[in-house]
UniProtKB/TrEMBL annotation:
Major location category of this protein: mitochondrion
Taxonomic superkingdom: Eukaryota
Renumbered residue ranges of the record's region Disordered: 72-97
Entry's Gene Ontology cellular component terms: mitochondrion; ribonucleoprotein complex; ribosome
Organism the protein comes from: Punica granatum (Pomegranate)
Protein name: Small ribosomal subunit protein mS33
Subcellular location: Mitochondrion
A Pfam family this chain is assigned to: MRP-S33
Keywords assigned: Mitochondrion, Ribonucleoprotein, Ribosomal protein
Cited InterPro entries: Ribosomal_mS33 (IPR013219)
Similarity comment text for this entry: Belongs to the mitochondrion-specific ribosomal protein mS33 family.
Amino acid sequence: MYVYSAAAVSSGVTEARARIFRHMLNPTGQRSPHKILRKKLIGEKVAQWYPYDINKDDPLVMARQEQERLSKLEMLKRRGKGPPKKGQGKRATKRSK
């Protein structure tokens, strides 16, 4: 006749359950990244959702956008609305007073 302690039976059942259902056995209760690492990676699906952006790869499109930006900046400078030179902005004038 076999005499088993309740703790041994309980631990054996727990180990068997972990193997069958593919659970992570953590008897000490320490924090583990297993829960996070178990999830599927979603980066590929997110990347597929957004359409391909030609603006980032085509140098002609980038050059045209840069040219438009520079021409707008030049127009603003002629009207006196362009960005201030370094050290002459609002913050610098407040500090000098």
